[in-house]
Design a protein that fits this description.
InterPro entries: UPS_plant, Ureide_permease. This protein has about 350 residues and is mostly helical. It has 13 helices and no strands. Helix 2 packs parallel to helix 7.
Length: about 350
């Protein structure tokens, strides 16, 4: 048996850091939103991870192209934090206006109730069927809450287990920064596992191939994810109610989507590692369409940033444009790996 345990440890460390980053991202979605979370986390991943991989790969990428791209990613991350702050202010304004309107309507309804008591019996519904005529219409109004309104925000808050209304802006940003830092570490760890730049392997022991390293990486990611999620079932954070493994197993709603997401994530990472081995991890790690696609999902499908201020829309567009430019610049920095 070959003594390649140092490389195996690097691969497993990469899997653990990916698990931590992914778990933090899921909390970040609730606090910051899908669009900004992915852009900020990915930008931090590139700023830190690309810099580490550039030096680990023996500077095979074009520095004059690579680091301006990294700078664009850093700007995108800063713009993402500004988008979140601006959107949080918009939401507070919507909720304040809604509360003021509710108070006004409550005062008016008191007068209306007194007036209705003076109606003749003939003007009241004769039976239950007549009284229910308008019920379906009222139910539809309740069900079709328009995205971007204060009612939409309250309805969303009631549906999810993570309660975010009234939370401090820095809490969500802190979770996203935590996710971005751990995301930034998993590709450098995998790079060390496959290329042994620190010369931890004994003489004559071959490096791990991408597929073998990916096996250990995936195994560690799976084990860490199971352990962390079981832990948070019994010791939840940010106000999530406690649960049990038995309750989790009984509730299978949406589980096939979670399994599909895991398989897609694993396939994407496999392609990233193969590309990194061929053209350098610094460039391969930064070429990602995930934040742009997730923004489309967040805005179009989940109603994020609907009815927001012009300032929020301007910051959101600037963030996405900067991210797209950064991705194009880093693609141009790729080069072929030289034999170690």
């Amino acid at each position: 048996m070959q003594n390649n345990w140092p490389s195996v440890l690097f691969a497993t460390a990469g899997g653990v850091t990916l698990s931590l980053g992914t778990l933090a991202t899921q909390y970040g979605w609730a606090f910051v939103g899908l669009s900004v979370t992915e852009v900020m986390a990915s930008s931090l991943k590139v700023v830190i991870g690309t810099t580490l991989n550039y030096f680990l790969d023996g500077r095979i990428n074009k520095a004059e192209v690579l680091f301006p791209g990294v700078g664009c990613f850093l700007i995108a991350a800063i713009l993402g934090s500004l988008v979140h702050s601006s959107n949080a202010a918009d939401n507070e304004e919507k909720l304040a206006k809604s509360l003021a309107n509710y108070s006004k309507n409550t005062r008016n309804s008191t007068y209306e109730d007194l007036t209705k008591q003076l109606l003749d019996e003939e003007e009241r519904p004769k039976d239950l069927e007549e009284a229910k005529v308008d019920a379906p219409e009222d139910t539809q109004k309740l069900e079709k809450v328009e995205a971007g309104t204060a009612e939409f925000l309250v309805d969303l808050e009631e549906k999810r287990s993570i309660k975010v209304l009234g939370s401090h802006t820095l809490l969500g940003l802190g979770i996203v920064v935590f996710a971005g830092v751990f995301y930034a570490l998993f590709t450098p760890a995998f790079n060390l596992a496959t290329n042994d730049q620190w010369h931890t392997l004994p003489a004559g022991v071959p490096h791990l191939v991408v597929y073998t390293a990916f096996f250990y990486f995936s195994l560690a990611c799976f084990a860490a994810s199971v352990g962390l999620n079981v832990w948070f079932l019994y010791r939840p954070m940010v106000g999530v109610p406690r649960s049990t493994v038995a309750a989790y197993l009984r509730d299978g709603e949406g589980r096939w989507l979670a399994l599909l997401a895991g398989m897609v994530c694993g396939l994407g990472n496999a392609f990233t590692f193969m590309a990194g081995q061929a053209a350098g991890y610094a460039a391969a790690d930064s070429v990602q369409a995930l934040p742009l696609v997730s923004t489309f999902w967040g805005v179009v499908l989940f109603g994020e940033y609907r009815r927001s201020s012009r300032r929020t829309y301007t910051l959101l567009a600037s963030m996405l444009l900067t991210f797209a430019v950064a991705m194009a610049v880093l693609m141009a920095s790729s080069n072929h790996r030289r034999p170690l």
